[in-house]
Amino acid sequence: MPAALPAPDAGPHDLSIGELAAATGVSRDALRFYEARGLIRARRRGNGYRAYPPEVVELVHYMRTAQQLGFTLAEIGEGMTQVWQQPDTDTAVTALLREKLAAIDARIASLQATRDALATRLGMPCPLATA
């Protein structure tokens, strides 16, 4: 689902920032931050207030879930663009998850190697001497 595109006026079913915050459990400040990063877009009401299309609720839930899975906001922004350009979004999301899992596995292996090196040095007379 693509991010909401800006429109000249808000629609009758659009949500205020407060309503969007309540529907998603995300603070108004976080929503403004997402908007500043280009992750979501608000339309403007006649009074200049933000108005979000209802589908932005699902988009914010997607972003929060992705953050909980370890994706950065930059990765989320890039990933959303990649996903929406694909005819099969489920396959595209699965590919992103596999890539993230591979990166985490590589990081775990690197940390394990570092841990092993530290553990080996604990038994040395001078742990910082060349091994």
Automatic annotation (TrEMBL):
Membrane-spanning residues: none
InterPro entries: DNA-bd_dom_put_sf (IPR009061), MerR-type_HTH_dom (IPR000551), MerR_fam (IPR047057)
Key words of the record: DNA-binding, Repressor, Transcription, Transcription regulation
Keyword Nucleotide-binding listed: no
Chain ranges of the HTH merR-type domain: 14-82
A matching Pfam family: MerR_1
Protein name from the UniProt record: HTH-type transcriptional regulator CueR
High-level lineage: Bacteria, Pseudomonadati, Pseudomonadota, Betaproteobacteria, Burkholderiales
